[in-house]
Each structure stands twice: as C-alpha cells, then as structure tokens.
Amino acid sequence: MTNKNESSLFNFIQKHAAIGTWEFDIKLNTLQWSSETKRIHGLPTDYVPDVNSGLSFYKAGQNRDTITQLYTNCIEKHENFDVELQIIAATGDEKWVRSIGIPIIENKKCIKVQGSFQDINEKTLNTKTLAYKEQQLRKIFESAVVGMAIVDLKGNWIDVNKSLCKTFGYTKEEFEKFSLQDITHPEDTLIGRKSIIKMINGELEDFITEKRYICKEGKTISAMLYASIIRDDDDKPLHFVAQISNQTQIKKSNSEVIQLLETTKDQNKRLLNFAQIVSHNLRSHYSNLDMLLNILKVDLPETTKNEIFPLIELAVSNLGESLENLNEVAAINTNKDLKTVPINLLSHFNKALSTISALIIESKTVLQLNVDKTVCVMGVPAYIDSILLNFLTNAIRYKKPHKKAEIEISTYNEEKFVVLVIKDYGQGIDLKKHGEKLFGMYKTFHKHEDSRGLGLFITKNQVEAIGGKIKVESTVNESTTFNIYLRNDE
Amino acid sequence: MKVQPLIYTLETMSKVDVAYIIDDDPIFIFGAKRMMEISNFCNSFKVFKNGHEAITKLKTENLKEIDIPEIILLDINMPVMDGWEFLEEFSKLIFNKKITIYIVSSSIDPIDIKRAKRYENVSNYLVKPISVDALKNILKDI
C-alpha cells in the first residue's frame, strides 16, 4: 500500500477517525506508515520509518517492552495484537495510541505484518479522569458518615455503604436478602410513596422525609431519608440514591431539650404567680397594718407612747420596703418587651448626682466623672437612673470608715458595648468569699446600717434586661471596680 | 397669682355627701371608714363587699338622689365581681350626677395601673394603704 494508492475516502476516514495504517514487509525489511500514522507520530509526510525507529517512539520501559514482545510474537507465533500504549511523539508530547497488528501468513511463514495505528489520547485521558472521579465518588459513598444506598426502582438494594451497615447492624451480604421496604417501620411504609411515583414520572428530582426503620436488633430508629433519582440519557429512571441519616440520638436530645424548656416555662410561670402573690396578697396585709397603725396614732395616742410602738412601726415600714423591692424584681423579670431608647449617659449621671447631692456633701465624696457628653447607650431611662444611683450610693456607703469616699468614673468602647467603669477606693469586697453571691437576693457583705443586698440584684437584673452585663474586680481594703457593659446606640 | 394656702382647713373643702366603698377586706373597710371620719370626708358612706353588690344597688330603679354616690373607692381583687368587671358594667349606666371613681388597690403592678387609665370614669389609682392626706387630696380634686 503506497501513499499514492490511498483513495480519497480512505484518506478522509484515516484523518477524521485518527486511524493510520502501517505495513511491515519482512522479506524487504521495510516499514511503511500511512500519512495519518506519521501525523499521529508528529512527523512530516516525507518521513521514512524503519522497524527500529518505529519502536523507539514507544515510551521507554513497559510500553516499549510490551510492543517489542507483541511484535516478536506476531512474527514468530503468528499472534494478532491489539494494545493501548503510550508513545512520545516527535513533538515531545505523550500520547495514548491503540496499535493493532495482524500477521500475513504464506506457507506457514509470516511474510508481512499489517496493522492500524489510532490516536486514542483524548478518549483515554477522559476515561482515566472518569475512572478517577468514579474512585472519588466511591470513596465518598463508602466512607460517608451518613448511611447511603443505591436502590433500584423496586426498592431492591444495588449497593449500600459502611455507614448504613453500621446504622442497621446488617452486613452488605445480609442487606441483599431484603428490600428497603422490608426494613421500614410498618406504619411508615407509605411515607414518601407519592414522591417516589413523582420521581419515577419525572416530575420530581429529589425529596426529604422523616421515616422510621427497624434495625437488626429489632430497635426502631428515626431517620431523615433524602432520596434522589438517577436517569439515563433519555431521562428514563434507572435507580435511586438514598441517604438515610439516623436521627434517633438527635431526636432524643431534642425531646429532652423540649421537656427541659417546658419545665423551665412551668417553673417560670409558678415564680411569676409567686411574685404576684407577694405583690398582691402580702402587700394588702402590709397596707392594712400600716393603716391601722396610723389610726391608732390618731385614736389612741396614749398606746403609742412606749418603746414598742416605734419598733412595730419600723417593722411594718421595712416590710413595705421589702415588698416593694420584690415587686420591682418581679416587674423586671416579667417585662419582656422592653423598649430601649438612646440615653445620654452624662446627663443621667448629673441627674443621679443631684438626687444624692446631700449624701455626697455629707460623706465629703471626691468624684471624678470622666464621661464624654456625647456618650450614649441604649436603655430604659428609669433603669439607667436606678443603675447609676445604685452604684453611686453603694460606692459612697461602702467607703473606708472615717475616710472620704473616692470614686472614679470613666467609659470606653468595646465591640457593641459602652463599658462604664465605676471605681471606688472603699472597703472592697472579698470576691473569693462572696463573688458567687454578690448579685444574689438579699446578700450583704458589709456591716453597714443601710445594707441592702437586693440593690445589686435589682441592678444586675436591670442591666441584663437592657442587654448588658456586669463584671467586677475588687481588693479588700483597696478598691472595687464595676465594669458595666451597656449596649451602644449603633 | 393666687397663693395656695399651705394648710387646708376642712371648711374650705367641698365635702362629699355619699361615698361608696367597694372592698371585700373588713380591715380595710374599718380603716377607710375611720380615715373618712378623721378627714371629715363625707356625710355618709355605703359599703359593698364586691362589685356585684354595688352594681345591683346602682341599678335599682328610682334610686334616691341621696343613695347615688359622688365618690366610689373601688378595690380590684374581689370575689363574685371584681373591680374591672364592675367598671365594665358601670360604664353602661347613666346618672344625672357626676360620679368619680378611685381605684384603691394594694397592687403596685404597672399592668393594673396602666389598665385603670383606660377607663374614662376612673379618675385616679390609689395604692393602699390610703392615708388621711390621700383622702384630703381627693376632696381637693373634685
């Protein structure tokens, strides 16, 4: 076969199918390559090949050894060959080629070898990429944490992964003995049936549902089923891919959380009732006592002129104050939809200071107020007033005995907060001893006539109600610093 | 500018003819009666143990002028008919005399105080214990 003899159709086929031909004449020891064969090798059409140079294009090593062996076998043992190997073209590119060789026998002797030579580089590379991707997907399927299965349209398993085996307690072999329906909880077999029909009819691509299954030990498990469908090129459904994620533990924890929430709600409700009982019922008794004492003073003045009466009056008045405090606490905790507004800190400080001006003068308090007039926080005005008043009066009340009260007030910004720093050089608080109880109801740490532990408790509640928090540092007989985090107005 | 006298003498104040006390608490009733006497609050008063008793009286046909109160001191928490229910019923009635209602409750719950403001007939919310001063202030207002 010579180049001249190639018909134009044959040429066309060679070129477009990327298939060249070759022929080795043993007697003449000549090798002929068609122009397409030369093109695949990256050679010009006038190139004249010989056997050795022909083989030298194969990649050294396994590729070249294989073709040499096959070539030898073809001549000596009259064996056909059909092989896919890599060559290195004249251009230096590596290429996958398919080489076919057929011996031509005359008088039981091989006189020629004829064959084809095909460029299969692209196809091979694609196949290899596909194989790689297939391997990836297989790994994902096999090692996925979620249980996965490929199921045929009738619900029979095609493949299951390790996680599914673990979830249900069956081996892969055991799975083959039954279908997906067989391990579905009898009450849940109909769940998702409509979606499956829709998927088969091409109206739906995937769906998620919750279903119960029975595992090998007979235990019921709750699972999320995520099903999708694989179709062929004609959109004909082939099989389902099912992901079954065991939710039993999550569900259990979830129901525990819900139960806990219920209990908390219930307790909260009872607390609220309790607070209402305190504010209504106890207060009416207190007010009656107070009223009767006033009448007694008018109607029977002689019965009040003794040591006991003023003490009764004091006890009743203290009772009233305690009830008012309790009521305040209840009000903070029940007032959930607080409306906060921007509040200028400095002007509220000035207001608080004027309220306690007498106390400041009497205690000879030295106060450094370093709050910029532009600093604003979000809050409820009444709460801010009460918070400032409480910290200021505490700082003055718990000064070192026989010394002036010294207070330093400043602010700084931290994330979404304006941090109000109130530092006093007073008695300090032993935080190791009292830290946990510092903001508790009715805890007092100082021997002071006005000690009211409820103050800090209310203050803490008010700060928290407007989205803030309080941090405290203190050294006994040195100083106490309250860092009050208030939401900024941005 | 008229200078307000610092001490109100009883003679300068308008005195209430009839006052109703609607409250289920006998101690409060005892105290309120005595306070009214001390402050020379009214000529006479009627006591009702709950809203129902009071509304029944007010609904009486041909109620004598002398039985229609000028002031009602109304408690909130009562059996049978509480203060709020009484106010609902009361607002349906028409009198040819101005009746001022004061809620007198031991509740300091802001929700109650807010709710009281919704009623046109309610002139103020007094927190127990009531004092002679509070009664005198009422006389000043009406």
State the CATH topology of chain B: Rossmann fold
Helix and strand run of chain B? EHEHEHEHEH
- Architecture of chain B, according to CATH? 3-Layer(aba) Sandwich
Indicate the CATH class of chain B: Alpha Beta
Helix/strand-derived category of chain A reads alpha+beta
Number of helices of chain A: 15
Number of helices of chain B: 5
Radius of gyration of chain A: 46 Å
Strand order of the largest sheet of chain B: 2-1-3-4-5
Q: Return the structural class of chain B.
A: alpha/beta
Give me the CATH fold name of the largest domain in chain A: Heat Shock Protein 90
CATH architecture of the largest domain in chain A: 2-Layer Sandwich
Number of strands of chain B: 5
Can you list the strand order of the major beta sheet of chain A? 2-1-5-4-3
pLDDT < 50 stretches of chain B: 1-12
Q: Main β-sheet of chain A: number of strands, strand sense, barrel status? A: 5 strands, antiparallel
CATH class (first level) name of the largest domain in chain A: Alpha Beta
Termini separation of chain A (Å)?
88 Å
C-alpha Rg of chain B (nearest Å): 15 Å
The CATH superfamily of the largest domain in chain A turns out to be Histidine kinase-like ATPase, C-terminal domain
Instruction: Give the CATH H-level superfamily of chain B.
Output: Response regulator
